[in-house]
Design a protein that fits this description.
By secondary structure, the protein is α/β, with parallel strands linked by helices. It has helices at about 1-25, 30-40, 50-60, 60-65, 80-85, 85-90, 105, 115-130, 155-175, 205-220; strands at about 45-50, 70-75, 95-100, 135-140, 175-180. Helix 9 links the parallel strand 4 and strand 5. It starts with a helix and ends with a helix.
């Protein structure tokens, strides 16, 4: 009986690991990461997050290639998924900086409802992992509009404001750089202007240009 229970436990653990790998798309950057490590060249910065960083590299790869930055965004991911792949996609690459932007998909409930305190805890865990590995973390504030296009979330803006307040307070208390990409161009309701965005949340090429100018002031 004990052997049956033990076998069941092993199968359950294996099943969980396989599900987690699929769930968080852990192998998305596996080959690219192996190439970075084998090259022996330390990246200056890794940008880890969701579709905003995913789209940045897809639309403006030269920004990353010319500055020795790596894009490690995956569209649709929530903070817990990003945390799950943080070691492989950041720590093992040993960059000088890691730029962290996530939370909008938590607000959108892409994996179900989540309290912003848990989202903040996931971001804090990433920061702590980075510091332990002698990587300088930069945490980014969200810039969602009042509506999330793929799901109706009536209080999306309020939740984003709450999370941004948590991030700002945490960064100040723990001496972490805090990045607000669009300091002077956001509209009153929190959305990005049409000339800088595809949908008030995702930047276009011009929007990414502003983001590039802002982050390069920090990544010295």
């Amino acid at each position: 009986m004990k052997r049956i229970v033990s076998l069941f436990a092993m199968l359950l653990a294996f099943s969980f690991c396989m599900s987690a790998q699929y769930y968080s798309n852990l192998d998305r950057y596996k080959t690219a990461n192996e190439d970075v490590i084998s090259s022996g060249i330390r990246p200056k910065a890794v940008f880890i997050g969701d579709s905003i960083f995913d789209g940045w590299y897809a639309n403006v790869p030269s920004f990353f290639d010319d500055n020795n930055y790596l894009g490690r965004g995956i569209g649709g991911q929530v903070s817990s998924e990003i945390l799950l792949r943080f070691r492989k996609d950041v720590v093992e690459l040993a960059p000088k900086y890691v730029v962290i932007l996530c939370g909008v998909n938590d607000i959108a409930m892409n994996r179900g409802p989540i309290d912003m305190a848990y989202t903040m805890a996931n971001i804090a865990s990433m920061v702590e992992m980075a510091k332990a590995a002698k990587i300088k973390p930069v945490v980014c504030l969200l810039f969602p509009g009042p509506k999330i296009g793929w799901r109706e979330i009536p209080d999306a803006f309020e939740k984003a404001e709450t999370l941004n307040s948590m991030i700002t307070e945490y960064a100040a208390k723990n001496h972490v750089k805090c990045m607000k990409f669009f300091r002077d161009v956001e509209t009153v309701d929190g959305s990005l202007p049409k000339e800088l965005s595809l949908d008030s949340i995702h930047p276009n090429v011009k929007g990414y240009g502003i983001m590039a100018d802002e982050i390069k002031r920090v990544l010295k």
